[in-house]
Automatic annotation (TrEMBL):
Gene Ontology MF: a single term: endonuclease activity
Family: Belongs to the CRISPR-associated endonuclease Cas1 family.
Keyword line: Antiviral defense, DNA-binding, Endonuclease, Hydrolase, Magnesium, Manganese, Metal-binding, Nuclease
Binding site for Mn(2+): E166, H234, E249
Record function comment: CRISPR (clustered regularly interspaced short palindromic repeat), is an adaptive immune system that provides protection against mobile genetic elements (viruses, transposable elements and conjugative plasmids). CRISPR clusters contain spacers, sequences complementary to antecedent mobile elements, and target invading nucleic acids. CRISPR clusters are transcribed and processed into CRISPR RNA (crRNA). Acts as a dsDNA endonuclease. Involved in the integration of spacer DNA into the CRISPR cassette.
Cofactors: Mg(2+); Mn(2+)
UniProt KW Oxidoreductase keyword: no
The name this protein goes by in its record: CRISPR-associated endonuclease Cas1
Organism of this sequence: Shouchella miscanthi
Assembly description: Homodimer, forms a heterotetramer with a Cas2 homodimer.
Amino acid sequence: MKKLLNTLFVTQPDVYLSLDGDNIVLLKEEQRLGRLPLHNLEAVVSFGYTGASPALMGYCAERNISISFLTKNGRFLARVIGSSKGNVILRKTQYRLSDSEEASTKIARNFITGKVYNQKWIVERMTREHPLRIDVDEFKTTSHLLSKILLEIRDCTNLESLRGWEGQASITYNKVFNQMILQQKEDFYFHSRSRRPPKDNVNAMLSFAYTLLANDTAAALETVGLDAYVGFMHQDRPGRASLALDVMEELRGVYADRFVLSIINKKILTEKSFYQKESGAVLMSDDARKTFLKAWQEKKQENITHPYLGEKLAWGLVPYAQALLLARHLRGDLDEYPPFLWK
């Protein structure tokens, strides 16, 4: 279990939650794993199917402590909460700000600042760690251009210009992405991003990783009471989790891209893991998808120190930390939304 920003995360999948006085008790096969006072908590997030006692849910409902249930892989199932006044106020604030170009731009700027900052960090890390295997001059030029774009992003006053600079940053970053592929270069290469459908092995994995990340982020937003479908930078569209796409922007490179590169460079998947359809779409085989998912779940368990909070947490909890920080900003507890700036 992990306590973060007054939210208790129960990450072991077979833990039952019960009530003892004013405390939450964590049980696994009738063995007590932990006991925490509830008066310090704002929310409980449980990964798994075991559930919680009616007494605990009733206690938390009366005190406006939400309990969210997710699968062990992070798919959102349900959120139990009593009086919804806090949730209503939060969502009304989200909806109001999303309708304002100025307010949306201020929030979206920080999402894209995080994205471009992390792209720059990835480029600089490759320069330091693999100077003999890449074009160092090109990577330094790319880093310099991304720094200039970061300055332009901070001065953006509307979403159109912000999207323009975000697109320019992506083009700049993508130009050196292929050089970050250090192994299996004959079978894994990146020339440009192709989405629907992915037209090569790398794009097939990127699309799958982005889908997984979007699902994780949407689940995180729902657990804090936000509407994952109403974004600030991405426009509302039926069936699209626009806010999840907003928040995951800063994690695309540092989380999903680097994960895909590790799958290639560690030879976890090979060219035999993919097949091409008549339409030209390249897809992963069922076995490859299972291997990819297993590695993704292992990645989510790796511990890091959150650059803003200074707390140790698993990679898989980063979307939840960012969702909590965004909710706190919308409630007025933070002057700005602090993006995930990886170091």
